[in-house]
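Example 3.
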Amino acid sequence: MSRDLAAAQEALLAAVIRGAPPPEGFDPERVRALADSLAAKRVRTAKRLWPALARCLEDRFESELRRIVMAHPLAKERAALLDGMRLAEAFEADLSSDAALELARVRLRYRVTAEGLKRRPFAVTLSARHVGVAVLGKAIIRAR
Amino acid sequence: MKLGIGWRHALAHFIDHAPQIDFVELLAEDIDVDRPLPLPLRRLLDRGVKTVVHSVSVSLGSADGADLDAARHLARVAEKVSAALVSEHLSFSRAGGMESGHLLPMPRNGASVTLLAQNVARVKKIVKRPLALENIASFVRWPNDELDEPQFVEQVLHETGCGLLLDLSNLYANAVNFSADPLGVLTAFPTGRVAYCHIAGGVQHGGLYHDTHAHPLQRGPLELLRELASRGIRPPILLERDDQFPRAPQMNAELSAIAQAAR
């Protein structure tokens, strides 16, 4: 039973986070409504953490981020920050200076792992666009 | 009646200046136990405001087993703030190595009751504090449900020995979304085991009631609170707000409405 339940839970979860077909016996409209509401919640949360990116991408922020969240399961650590980071990287060549600085700050403070974003104990950045330093999650960064 | 509020960074200033607040609920996932607590929170604790710690990531209903790392984190946070009580949900949020970031329902049957009893027993050994279990809101139901929600909750509480975190807004949402009478469902709930209550705002959208924690408090959940009080049941009640934070006057108005309904 437990193995059957594990498989059934996995199928329901895949339907609501990846848009997989709903498991047999579930109301497909309700599963879709749930999936929509979860995607909207991830978009809302990421939008709060990436204000400059949201300003830069305007309407595309929501539509493109929805595509990204359906393609990537929720990370265990700092999921919303990682969702926004994936979006910022997809548009990296076209970012406004504010949005580019926002992305550079996140990259300076965190590294991407299988679990999500983990804080770097210490990091410096010296690129053509930015100069900055991060210590235990606190970062100072500016455009050059 | 004790009045509480979910502590959030965006509400820290408001809570610091809200003398009517008797207790706060911390989200375990918001606290980094290796760093000092946020200053406004330390000030509250110094003032003697009581805390409970709430978790959303232990996934007590996972057939693969609860997330014991999340349970250890919950225990460490509870220890750090000397919480008298911790709480989690009657749900799963993890399966096959994936996280939903959302509380999903379990099939309401005997097998789920047994599974929850096993997982809760493991988690209780780790948290070493009273654990209250919360009823969730969901748009979906399992096709193999054998129990109604009050029966399921009652059996789980009986098997686990836990108290109930009665979320009035979740109860209301499920009743409305599955065409049941909210007061009838409340009557059937094991309200004698309530440790504390949640209440939150929501919105009607697309034919469904969404328990958003981001909209104003609606009349339906408040009526349930009024009904509880009229039966002489006056547990501690806590307002949850997670997004689109209103200004202080609206927060105060919602807290007053709760206090009035619970009188």
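Residues 49 and 90 of chain A are 17 Å apart (CA to CA). The first strand of chain A starts at residue 110 and ends at 113.
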